[in-house]
Write a structure and sequence with these properties.
By secondary structure, the chain is an alpha+beta fold. The chain is about 40% helix and about 20% strand. It contains 11 helices and 9 strands. It binds 3,4-dihydroxyphenylalanine (DAH).
Length: about 350
């Protein structure tokens, strides 16, 4: 029996040493030390021993049981430490690995140009005014001296909101002139950028929604010279110091006299080419001296004050600036196009 016990001790030692995880270890404990385990099985045969042998074998068996228990314990501790180490290794954060790149968005080209324009005007003492896109016809038409029979009042031109034609989506930023004159006394120097809406079919140069930048200056002694100086400064700051402009007579109901400003074509320098459609010049904005009736209707005395106003198409400005040939590109939100600017 002594040999059987010693063989069991050797076998269990080897098996415990080789146990690779906790489950195997637990199975070994049951196999050797459990109620139906191998050690118990041997001890059950003790009855067959002589009275002298019994205590000797009993002592040996107890010693082997104690050894097995301590071997199981220390193997268990070793395995736990290994598992802990593996887990820590797996969780290691390597701060030297290059980070994942996050794609940043970019300012839209229209905002880039608008920011440029507002910077230039705030530098000249203008403040920024914003107003509603759903506008009263009173402000967009009547107070701007737009006659009853003007085509812009037609349902085919303007997006009316109410049946009675009193409310519509503003078709220009000019009603901001009226809102500002109502809200403040001269001297007035404001810039009013925003969306405007017209019933136009979409093509390379038209869209039912686009942006304008309205400007209004009112003070004592304002002249056409102030208008030209201000707008020439704007163009030279945007398009470079060599930019050549010209002012052409025009008609707007809310200004008198009225003009349009052209830029000399940067492609042919006035000779006429494909870019300017043979004109040599490119129309860029409308402007004029605020009509005395418009001042009067908003409670400003035209005998004391005069002023100038202008309306710039933001899309046109941006398209010239970056030589973009199709308006639709500005609204399609194709990041490959927009990220170029
Ligand atoms: N509102 C005009 C338009 O949409 C542009 C314009 C012209 C605005 C002359 C003005 C101005 O303030 O004085 O075509």
């Amino acid at each position: 029996m002594k040999e059987m016990l010693e063989a069991l001790r050797d076998a269990s030692r080897q098996a415990i040493d080789a146990a690779a995880d906790m489950d195997v270890l637990e199975a070994l404990r049951i196999r050797y030390l459990g109620k139906k385990g191998e050690l118990t099985a041997i001890l059950k045969q003790m009855g067959r021993l002589s009275a002298e042998e019994r205590p000797v074998i009993g002592q040996l068996a107890n010693q082997i049981r104690a050894e097995m228990e301590s071997e199981l314990d220390s193997r268990k501790a070793a395995l736990a430490a290994r598992l802990q180490e593996l887990r820590l290794n797996a969780e290691t954060l390597d701060v030297t690995i290059p980070g994942k790149e996050v794609r940043l968005g970019k300012k839209h080209v229209l905002n880039t140009v608008l920011d440029e324009v507002t910077d230039i005007f705030t530098g000249m003492g203008f403040s920024i005014a914003e107003g509603p896109e759903i506008e009263l016809s009173l402000y967009d038409f009547d107070r701007l001296n737009i006659p009853e029979n003007h085509t812009v009042r037609e349902w085919t031109d303007t997006f009316y909101i109410t049946e009675d034609e009193k409310v519509h989506l503003r078709c220009q930023t000019s009603p901001m002139q009226v809102r500002v004159m109502e809200a403040m006394k001269p001297p007035i120097r404001i810039l009013a950028p925003g969306r405007v809406y017209r019933k136009d079919e979409i093509d390379a140069t038209h869209s039912p929604m686009f942006h304008q930048i309205e400007g209004l200056v009112i003070d004592r002694g304002i002249t056409m010279g102030d208008l030209k100086g201000t707008l020439n400064t704007l163009m030279q700051r945007i398009y470079g110091p060599d930019t050549v402009t010209r002012f052409r007579p025009h008609h707007f109901p809310f200004t008198e006299p009225s003009c349009e400003m052209d830029l000399q074509c940067f492609e042919c320098h006035g000779a006429g080419c494909r870019v300017c459609k043979g004109e040599g010049w490119i129309e860029i904005l409308g402007a004029g001296m605020v009509h005395p009736k418009v001042l009067e209707m908003s409670g400003i005395d035209p005998e004391i004050y005069s002023g100038f106003a202008f309306g710039i198409g933001l899309e046109r400005l941006a398209m010239r600036r970056f030589q973009i040939s199709d308006l639709r590109l500005l609204y399609e939100n194709d990041i490959r196009f927009l990220s170029q600017f």
